[in-house]
Write a structure and sequence with these properties.
Length: about 650
Amino acid sequence: MTIRGGYAGQVLRIDLSQKTIGKEPLPEEDVLRRYVGGTGLGLYYLLKEAAPDVDPTDSEAPLIFMLGPLTGTPAVNSSDWTIVCYNFCIPYAAGVGHGHGYWGAYLKHAGYDGILIKGKSRRPLYLWIDDYKVELRDARHLWGLDTRETERRIKLELGDEEGISVACIGPAGEAVLPGASVKADRNHGAGKGSPGAIMGSKNLKAIAVRGTGTVPLYNAQGVVEAAAEWQRNLFLGSSGTFTYDQPASVGLQNAGITRNYYDRLGKALRVAGKNMTDPLWGAEFSRRYVEACSRWHVTPKPSYNCYISCAYDVEITDGPFAGFVGSLCGGAENMEGAAAAIGVDDPSAVVLLTDFYDAMGLESGTFGSIMGAVYQAYNEGILTLEDTDGLDLTWGNWKAAMELVEKAIHREGIGAKLAGGAKALPAALGTEKGVIEEMRNRLLDVKGAGVVMHDHRQFWSVLFGDMVAGTGPCMQGDGTDMMKHPEVGYSETTPGVAHNVGQALSKVEAVRITQFAKLWWDCLGVCMFAARGVKDSVDTASKCLAQSVGWQDFGPQEALEVGERVTTLMRLVYARRGFSKADEFDVSPKHLEPPTVGPAKGLSIAPYLPAMVDEYYRQMGWNVETGLPTADTLQRLGLKEFVDDRP
């Protein structure tokens, strides 16, 4: 193909078993237009190249880093890089994680749109990409280091602390733990799907990148003008007190979670306090954190071409931990999974524990779900000191939590039982005592993977979107219960709960459409927080793509078709790896328990779930009996080459 702009035009292909490095062109233009990049193109490679029955950690299972055509361009928040693999925790699903910072832009500036990795090295290695020069280097001296120290050492070793970005795993990835993440630029990382576990299974410690080039653009002035239009809409409605239904760009601007956590999540009873048993305690958790941050030194840490700067460093300036600086990402899921889920009261300990998870390379939504279940079981007397290796897991004991994580990394005692993941945990801890069901009832998971660590029982469209997300629980389609979505025609929010089947079914369409929009942005290489809920963002992002690549007739309708196609690609992975419709309802009982307070008090989504799932399948054009795409739908979406992937 002739590259007119947006794309670098080639990917790296690495075989760690053979220690070979190759460069190859991107697929033909018609393929790129169907899948665009990022999540879409990564899933395309996964379906084309991965054996359907391979285990995620098998040598030949792929690990795919993919950029979008807008990554590293003047487009708004163009920092996104995507990791695609088989999901470590869900046997029939793909795993898709997103990271930000500078790593993706530097890889594009080095001249590559992605990296396709197979094989397994006999000893630890790291990949060094310095523009056109690419080499594998010994990483035995880095094995065992946390993500912070790994990044620092590699930059010193390569002699450039400013111009290099490092994506790496920590001890959790080396130990192949559920929830192991890939961290970059201290404050950023990708965790959904447990990509760090896949990277660790291949003995790949890190990928360091220095890129000194630029991204070719079909019409640079047109890109800048479209980006300026997009940027003008980012912070509409940002005056006064932030409320939960405003775009995330407003609430997260300049480390906004340190100011708006209570207004955005606490008041709405969305904080998953004490393993989602105490929403009022969770609200207070968020209030305490905001109050503490008002005293401390908070420094926003932007990503490449980022106008939001949601990530931040926070220096504790009082108390016994004064002087400690935590490097946190921009949302609150990290703090809830690491700290709120186990009842940590002290905001200083929240920072320490969240930073510890990131240093270990451990995504707290997944591993925090496991920890929360263990803490709740201990506090309710189901587990005792004898079961926990003598660790006192009273709510709030964050030091014991660190010890538990370390035990899991080294597979020592109770840690070995946690290392098996959510699906294995009830039997691992409960068989001997006869409390398997009690342990299962305390887990927070969907399909065996940790959730987006908030309490979404007050907002059924968000909860339903987590359940039907095509790569396991993650924020794909959130509907309109929590936020307006003017970018796809939804200018008002809707009631968070339903009182009859009709009201429940009315939520499905908005979940589906917002899912298409989210996956469209994930293909472009831009941050969803710069687009979700932002006026005209589907249109302005389409203009940026058109002017970058040269597809002058590419518009919002085709953009949402890309999102629908990617949603369907995820189901094709389900189809080839053994999904059955019963798996759709593999949801932890805790999500289906009615809240005890708030507007959803006494109400559960459970009675309506079967009808909502069937309606979602019908709207998607999938077989209602199997939950898999029909041949007609695949033909309509230009996916006829995958028709045989259906059972």
